[in-house]
Structure formats: C-alpha cells, structure tokens
Design goal:
With 495 residues, the chain is of the alpha/beta class. Helix content is 32%, strand content 20%. The radius of gyration is 22 Å and the shape is globular. The structure holds zinc ion. The site of zinc ion has 5 residues, from loops. Zinc ion binds next to loops.
Length: 495
C-alpha cells in the first residue's frame, strides 16, 4: 500500500516481537539492552473479534503498541512476566477496540468540539474513528494530536470527498472548505467525466486522507473510473449507497470498499421510468419501492463479491425519523440536521443558506423498520456490516452514540452479539483497509482493546461497563473520564 498504510505496516513490523521471542526479549532487557515495554493483561475472557467463541482465563501480552501473544494464563512463564507491567483483568471481558465507522468531527472545524467528541469516544471503548468528510485541515491536526498523545482520542482516519459540481452548493461543503472554494480544494473535489482522475486521486491522497468518499451527482461510469484509479493508487473508495445518478446496484458493481446509509439500497428498485423522470427534473421526492425486489439481492451479491462493507448508520435513521424525512420534498440533499450527513452552522454562527431544493431526483421511501429489515437482509446475504452512526451523540451523553448503533444492530436487526462485535471492530477495519492491523485481538495487531466488566455476549448494555480502553498499548481507565461542559459550538449540538 502507498503512503500512510505503508508507514503503519513498517511500524507494526518494527514493534512486533513474536510470542516465540518473548524469552529472548526478556533476556535482552535483563542484560540492560532496550527491549519493548511489555504489558500483560492477565485473566480476561477474550472475544477476539474474529467471530471465534469467547476464551476464559487468557493473558494478552502487549509489547509497545502491538499484541505479541494471547495465551492461557497458566502458560505465562516467569521470563515473560519479568519486567512486565501486569494488569489484573480477571473478571473482565476483552473485546477489540471499537471502530466508529462513520462520523463527522470537523464538518466545520472546531478543535475544542472535536476533542470533546473524540475524548468520549475513546473512554467509551472506541479506538478508531472514520471521519466521512469534513475540513481536512482540522482533521489532519486532530489525527496528529491523537497519534502523539497530545489529546485522548481514537486513531482518526478521514476521507477526501469527490462529487459532481452540482453538490458544492451544499452548506456543509462550504463549512468544510471555509475560506476556500468547495469543489476546488484537494479534500473536496468537483469531478466530471472530463476530470483527470489520476491527478484527482493523487491530490486526494496528498491530503493524508486514507479514503476517497464519493457523495453525490456521480454516474456509474465516472464512479467506476474513480474506483479503478483509486485501486491502482492503493486508496479505498467509500461511497454513499446512492450517489445519484448512480444507484445502489451501480455503486456496488463499481467495487468500492464501503457503502454508507442502508435506506438508499432501495434506489435500485425504483422503476427506471420513474427514476428517469427524477433525473430530468420532472419529479422529485420519495417514492414507494418494493424493498424485497430481487434487484436488491443483486446489490448484496455484488457487495459480497467485491468485499464491500455496508455501514448502515441506523441510528441516524431512527433519530431523525422518517416523518421528518417525508416532509422534505427534496432529493439528493437534506436539510440541516436531517438524516445522512449532519449539517452545521456557517462561520460566525450564521445558519447555512437553505439547501437548493431544485435538486433533481427521487429517492426510495424507507421507514425505520425498513432500514432494520434491509440491514438484516444484507447481513443474511453475507454482506459485511460495519457499525457507524453518522455522528450526533447528544452533548450530555456520557457514552458515545456507537453504543446505540450496536444496540440497534442487536435488538432491531437481530444480529447476535458475537456478530455485532465483529461488525463494530473487524468490519470497520475492513472498511478502512486496515484489517491486517486493527479490528481483532490477535498477535501482530495493534493493541486496541476494550475491557468490560460485564459479558458483552449478554447484550449491548454491557458496553456501559467499560473499565479500560487500550489504544496502541496505552491505557485509558474509564474512572479517569470526565465529560465536562460541551464547548460552545455556534449553531448546533456536537456530533
Ligand atoms: Zn455522513
């Protein structure tokens, strides 16, 4: 992989001391040579995130930032314990650090606000967050601050956005490119069939983004070309399920790494003539579709074939409610605060200008129950589901919204907790293209672990019993968490 991914791979190799070398490492430390700092979490029940059953009485051996070994406690030899920091994890359950697969912490850059959000994430068991389009100038700084432990935050990965020129009147893009022209900056590029995509993808990578988000006003041919060039340059494409005119089936066939927002899967089932009327501006709004249409099975088949992850973002569907969605006679854009990407006030606390309601196109009507049913169908069809919220944790909540997304996946979609935990860790890692580095508790993976007092297989409430989050081998005890006052944010609640 190119760029950042390569750098991570090198750091993993440099830090890793395989289990077989543990005694040699211990010997080296005794001899006065510099060895890795070793931490042993002893006595935990481990759910490793691979889908394997829980294992009791395990020790997780961490060297610097990396998991060196996971062994039964009674196999811990004196030479391994020598010089190690031992954390008594007996009675605790270890799960992979959670991956928040869809958030927005810098739609409008606000450092204090972003730190407030990310701090709550980390102490809620989240060790990685994928930001799905915002002001990259701010995101880069937050990423750096987290990496060098200037702030308590998950690892922050982010996207550079591409969309058709029509999209860049959206006030969110104006906020995220404040001072510049949205569509004409490297992290928010307007693309058409005439765009030099080799250059566009290279510019996107130059922002330190590790994914290209395709959002709207893109046809199937252009999306396929973006995906192909991104593949060539080693950066994943994260697409909305529907980037009208390209609908869910075309998006799935383009071979993108991840698709966001389950409701728009139904776009494939909109009759062609109705969809065409929408594209031609003769019709707009929500249309009823048969969400059991076999064409949606074709979408799932293409996603499975291409290894595409679905981040369903159920929580935002529930939160906003279909009633409010239905009240909006517009398509391809949403009002401030509506489902999908959260909107923010403009600079100086001014409300953003109203969204252009002349946008063309139709969208599938999708009630909350439909969103659950579609997610369940995707899961049953073997599509990888990731857990992402689209942001918007209430400011006074002491736990991140991701816990709620996990609850919805378990209770409303009907996924067993073992599968939900895999969704909330490993599948998030797959979406990021980091599945060889994070997302499971296995030797060679980053030491990203959440320790819970209660059994996570018993239900999602257990996430509130988080005692300790370990990120890259650093310990963050829940007892040290302080929510604090949410910083002032002009015009809206924190995401
Ligand atoms: Zn979003």
């Amino acid at each position: 992989m190119i760029g950042r991914g390569g750098w991570i791979a090198v750091s993993v190799l440099a830090a890793l001391s395989p289990a077989g070398d543990l005694s040699a490492q211990a010997g080296a430390r005794e001899g006065g040579a510099e060895g890795p700092a070793r931490t042993i979490f002893r006595g935990a029940t481990v759910i490793d995130g691979t889908g394997a059953a829980a294992r009791d009485g395990m020790a997780i051996i961490v060297e610097d930032e990396v998991i060196a070994a996971v062994v039964p406690v009674d196999e811990l030899g004196a030479e391994v314990l020598e010089g190690a920091e031992v954390v008594d994890a007996s009675g605790w359950h270890a799960i992979p650090g959670l991956v928040e697969a869809h958030t927005h912490v810098a739609t409008m850059a606000n450092r204090a606000q972003a730190e407030f959000i990310l701090n709550r994430y980390l102490y809620g068991g989240i060790t990685t967050a994928r930001d799905m389009a915002g002001d990259v100038r701010s995101l880069m700084d937050l990423q750096r601050a987290s990496l060098v432990k200037e702030i308590d935050a998950p690892d922050l990965l982010f996207s550079a956005l591409m969309a058709g020129p029509d999209f860049f009147t959206d006030p969110r893009t104006v906020s995220s490119a404040a001072g510049e022209t949205p569509g004409a900056v490297t992290w928010m590029q307007a693309v058409t069939g005439d765009t030099d995509l080799v250059e566009a993808v290279t510019l996107a990578r130059g922002t330190w983004a590790t994914g290209i988000k395709t959002y709207a006003a893109i046809d199937g041919e252009l999306l396929g070309a973006i995906a192909a060039e991104a593949r060539r340059q080693g950066i994943p494409v994260w697409s909305h399920v529907h980037v009208g005119p390209a609908r869910s089936l075309e998006v799935a066939r383009a071979g993108v790494r991840a698709m966001s927002h389950v409701c728009d899967l139904g776009s494939a089932a909109i009759p062609d003539d109705v969809f065409r009327e929408g594209q031609e501006g003769r019709r707009s709004g929500f249309v009823d579709v048969d969400l059991n249409d076999p064409v949606i099975d074709s979408v799932f088949a293409a996603m499975r074939r291409n290894g595409t992850v679905l981040d369903a973002t159920l929580r935002i569907v529930v939160q906003i409610g279909q009633r409010r969605m239905a009240a909006i006679d517009t398509v391809g854009a949403r009002p401030p605060g509506a489902a999908g990407d959260s909107a923010r006030a403009g600079p100086g606390g001014r409300r953003p200008p109203p969204i252009d309601r002349r946008r063309r196109g139709v969208r599938p009507r999708c009630e909350t129950a439909d969103a659950f049913a579609l997610t369940r169908r995707a899961w049953e069809a073997g599509v990888m589901i990731a857990a992402g919220t689209d942001g918007m944790t209430p400011p006074d909540s002491v736990f991140p919204a991701l816990h709620e997304e996990i609850r919805l996946l378990h209770e409303d979609v009907g996924m067993p907790m073992l599968d939900v935990l895999k969704a909330a860790s490993y599948h998030g890692a797959v979406a990021l293209g980091l599945e060889d580095e994070i997302g499971t508790i296995e030797p060679g993976r980053k030491a990203n672990i959440a320790f819970l007092r209660e059994d996570p297989l018993a239900g999602p409430e257990s996430l509130r019993s988080v005692e300790l989050t370990v990120k890259r081998g650093t310990l963050y005890y829940r007892r040290d968490f302080v929510l604090g006052e949410p910083p002032e944010r002009p015009g809206g609640p924190p995401g």
